């Protein structure tokens, strides 16, 4: 097992990005517009351009007075991310983009086209402090939290790419999953602001259905409870990876603080409150967590805690640099699925999109990018 990294909950306070319309609630948006000397109804016009028109280009905003337009737009919709590189694979249906923030911080997001939807995997932090040994992001440590604006910009830029045909026929971004770099619930307030901007009806937000947004967590129990209290319809995903505390303490180090039973109890409250099934993420690692007895235990534990309100997503382990672990052989995987299902628990295997461009789950590390 690789040497363990410390858990980091508090991001270093540095590189605070400029304030963006998407960092603000509706009252704050109007106040920010007033502060520039413009009438507050322009907040709605700007939001319309940004969330519905997917633009921050003053040239597109002919309903704003030409005099001072650029300065006004730059003040409220500052450029937060610039594209460094974009790579496609899976016949063009998967695209990973590397972005540089104002302070040189690098992050990645991954856009995926499926027959029935277009999904964006967003980063919520630059790096991650959760130190999971099989995840490339976790092995790189935490650089900083992303602002709500930086998260929302990933969504806008992806929605533009999808609309512009970057993944094949032009389409509408329909789903957002917080499964990129970072632990979203360790950056709670900014992630929640971003979620609100993603799901709010235009012009306040992009108008993506809450049910099509997934927040994934290693299991930060107090933050799961906070999310429950928000009473949103977003899906909760819990990265469990094993049903027993002994192994989970090493695979997901935060388990030393919140044990499997506590995490599943919090997940149950979420499911009961929202009526939504919780998704359990399980990266299947050869000879580590793929034994038949673990499948039985996983199935019985989930049945007991969540009954029908759960779905297991198995992820064949994606290779990461420096790790000697690999995915389980196919027959082992098939037997694992069979045993979980035999306990009455829904279980499917996730496709391993983006592997060849290091865009798959756990592979985001901004590797090979020259620092700013
Ligand atoms: N920190 C959050 C959000 C990241 S989601 C979380 O862990 O849930 C990324 C998902 O990919 C998580 O379920 C994570 O456990 C999984 N993952 C990480 N490394 C992986 C790898 N090498 N192969 C497959 N899945 C991996």
Précis, in short:
With 372 residues, this protein is an alpha/beta fold. It has helices at 26-35, 42-52, 69-76, 136-140, 148-163, 188-199, 221-230, 245-251, 260-274, 292-306, 330-342, and strands spanning 81-89, 94-101, 106-113, 118-121, 125-127, 142-145, 175-178, 213-217, 235-239, 278-284, 310-316, 346-349.
What's the number of helices? 11
Structural class given helices, strands, pairing? alpha/beta
| Unique bound compounds | S-adenosyl-L-homocysteine
Overall morphology? globular
What's the story with the biggest beta sheet?
10 strands, mixed
Label this structure with key terms:
ten-stranded mixed beta sheet; two-stranded antiparallel sheet; globular; 33% helix; 372 residues; binds S-adenosyl-L-homocysteine; 12 strands; alpha/beta
Plain-language structure description:
The chain is of the alpha/beta class. About 35% of the residues lie in helices and about 20% in strands. It contains eleven helices and twelve strands. It has helices at about 25-35, 40-50, 70-75, 135-140, 150-165, 190-200, 220-230, 245-250, 260-275, 290-305, 330-340, and strands at about 80-90, 95-100, 105-115, 120, 125, 140-145, 175-180, 215, 235-240, 280-285, 310-315, 345-350. The strands form two sheets. A ten-stranded mixed sheet has the order 1-2-3-4-7-8-9-10-11-12, covered by helices on one side. The protein has a two-stranded antiparallel ribbon with strand order 5-6. β11, α11 and β12 form a beta-alpha-beta unit. α7 runs parallel beside α9 and α10 runs parallel beside α11. It starts with about 25 loop residues before the first helix and ends in a 23-residue tail after the last strand. The relative contact order is 0.12. The mean pLDDT is about 95. Bound molecules: S-adenosyl-L-homocysteine (SAH). The site of S-adenosyl-L-homocysteine (SAH) has 18 residues, from β8 and β10.
């Amino acid at each position: 097992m690789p040497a363990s990294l410390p858990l980091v909950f508090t991001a270093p306070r540095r590189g605070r990005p400029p304030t963006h319309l998407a960092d603000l609630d509706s009252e704050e948006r109007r106040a920010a517009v007033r502060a520039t000397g413009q009438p507050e109804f322009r907040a709605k016009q700007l939001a319309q351009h940004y969330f519905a028109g997917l633009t921050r280009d003053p040239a597109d905003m002919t309903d704003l007075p030409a005099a001072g337009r650029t300065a006004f737009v730059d003040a409220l919709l500052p450029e937060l991310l610039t594209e460094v590189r974009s790579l496609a694979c899976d016949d063009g249906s998967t695209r990973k983009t590397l972005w540089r923030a104002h302070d040189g911080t690098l992050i990645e997001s991954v856009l995926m086209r499926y027959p029935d939807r277009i999904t964006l995997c967003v980063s919520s932090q630059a790096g991650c402090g959760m130190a999971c040994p099989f995840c490339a992001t976790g092995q790189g440590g935490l650089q900083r939290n992303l602002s709500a604006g930086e998260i929302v910009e990933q969504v806008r830029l992806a929605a533009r790419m999808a609309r512009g045909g970057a993944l094949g026929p032009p389409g509408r971004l329909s789903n957002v999953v917080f499964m990129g770099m970072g632990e979203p619930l360790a950056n709670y307030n900014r992630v929640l602001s971003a979620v609100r901007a993603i799901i709010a009806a235009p012009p306040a937000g992009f108008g993506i259905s809450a049910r099509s947004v997934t927040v994934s967590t290693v299991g930060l129990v107090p933050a799961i409870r906070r999310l429950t209290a928000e009473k949103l319809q977003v899906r909760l995903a819990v990265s469990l990876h094993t049903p027993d505390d002994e192994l989970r303490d090493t695979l997901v180090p935060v388990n030393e603080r919140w044990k499997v039973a506590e995490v599943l109890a919090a997940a149950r409250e979420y499911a009961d409150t929202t009526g939504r099934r919780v998704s359990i993420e399980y990266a299947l690692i050869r000879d580590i967590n793929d034994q038949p007895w673990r499948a039985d235990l996983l199935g019985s534990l989930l049945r007991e805690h969540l009954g029908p309100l759960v779905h297991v997503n198995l992820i064949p382990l994606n290779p990461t640099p420096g790790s000697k672990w690999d995915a389980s052989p196919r027959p082992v995987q098939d037997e694992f699925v069979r045993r979980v299902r035999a306990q009455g628990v829904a279980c499917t295997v996730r496709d391993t999109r983006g592997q060849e461009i290091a865009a798959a789950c756990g592979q985001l590390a901004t590797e090979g990018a020259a620092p700013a």
